[in-house]
Specification:
The chain is α+β, with helices and mostly antiparallel strands. It has three domains: 159 residues, no CATH class; 44 residues, no CATH class; 104 residues, no CATH class. Helices cover 37% and strands 23% of the residues. Helix 5 crosses helix 6, helix 6 crosses helix 7 and helix 7 packs antiparallel against helix 9.
């Protein structure tokens, strides 16, 4: 593979249409629905998540039965919206308390009233154990392509994640998604906070203060992300620099690697570089650090190998990894920080 000798993008074919992770894993909410109506539409209302003592009825050799239980251990149940029957979601201790989907919806209603954000997609994964409710914030990002001069849109979403199985906390995440390629992007956390833990509280004043903090973070994130991306768009890269950045990011020349590890990392470098040079979604920013960052996120979200079990849906498994994989998140944040021009002054 030869390095490009100019910043002119190769001629590209139109990309195949893609769905973003929220639309893939959840129910896309029609325009005009309220938050509570959206919860009903997505089949996430009236789950009645609760915990019951964890016990089993055992039949003894004489035919009688006895109940066996573990002290201070409970099973989490929900009412399945399709069957009306209870589903077991997990095992928890006595301190765990459920946070209903309606509680999350109430938070979003307040955010909707305070910011003008609109419901975008609501969904449940892993049999209802994890849920997400996403709002599309009113202001996204329009970046000008230095290649075509056209405007390129990235939307910003605020997503509330909840867990009904005892693993994970209630949190709000700010997530940019570039619409042309449906890549889920991540800015380095040192530049602006994108994830906020939310407290389970019914106190009105405390919750209002918490929501103000979430909105303040969203404004800060929006401003910093825009400045950072514009700086990357203005920073040109030639072919040698692209290869050097990928080798550094993937640590492809680490002297402690085995021959097999070196081969695998070289293959990944080649795959990302091929996307940078040949993907139609990268073409508008070819020759820039922002273009290389989009090649990296396109690889992680849409091309990196996933294991699909028999009967599984590759698109859903890939989307679930994009949405919930902390290691992938950290990799994107590291790529973003590395590709930021050093003189911008946004990093620590």
């Amino acid at each position: 593979m030869t390095a490009p000798t100019s910043t002119a993008a190769p001629e590209q074919r139109a990309p195949a249409p893609r769905a973003d992770v929220f639309s893939t894993l959840g129910q896309k909410i029609p325009d005009g629905l309220s938050i509570s109506e959206a919860l009903e539409f997505a089949g996430m209302a009236n789950w009645n998540v609760r915990k019951v003592p964890h016990s089993q009825t055992i039949t003894l050799p004489d035919g009688t039965t006895t109940e066996v239980s573990i002290p201070h251990t409970f099973t989490v149940l929900r009412d399945n919206p399709s069957t009306g029957l209870p589903d077991a979601l997990g095992s928890v201790g006595r301190k765990w308390t459920p946070y209903q989907n309606e509680d999350c919806a109430n938070l979003l209603s307040d955010l909707h009233n305070m910011s003008g954000a609109t419901p975008y997609s609501f969904g449940a994964t892993n049999g209802g154990r994890k849920t997400f409710l996403s709002l599309k914030l009113p202001e996204g990002f329009n970046f000008r392509s230095p290649v075509t001069g056209n405007s390129d849109l990235t939307n910003l979403y605020l997503v509330v994640f909840n867990s009904h199985d005892g693993f994970g906390s209630l949190s709000a995440n700010l997530t940019p998604i570039r619409m042309f390629c449906c890549n889920q992007q991540r800015m380095a956390e040192s530049m602006a906070r994108s994830r906020m833990l939310l407290r389970h509280t019914g106190d009105a004043e405390t919750r209002l203060q918490m929501l103000r903090e979430v909105l303040d973070e969203s404004f800060s994130y929006h401003h910093t992300y825009q400045l950072a991306c514009e700086a990357m768009i203005e920073a040109e890269l030639d072919g040698d620099a692209v290869l050097a950045e990928l080798n550094k990011l993937l640590r492809a020349n680490d002297p402690d690697l085995t021959d097999r590890q070196r081969e695998l990392r070289a293959d990944t470098v080649g795959s990302v570089r091929a996307l940078y040079e040949g993907s139609p979604t990268v073409a508008p920013f070819y020759g820039t650090r922002y273009g290389l960052y989009n090649a990296i996120t396109e690889y992680t979200d849409h091309h990196m190998r996933v294991i699909v079990p028999d009967g599984g849906n590759e698109r859903e498994i890939r989307a679930l990894r994009t949405l919930n994989n902390d290691q992938l998140d950290s990799f994107k944040q590291r790529a973003f920080a590395q590709l930021m021009p050093a003189d911008v002054g946004l990093t620590d």
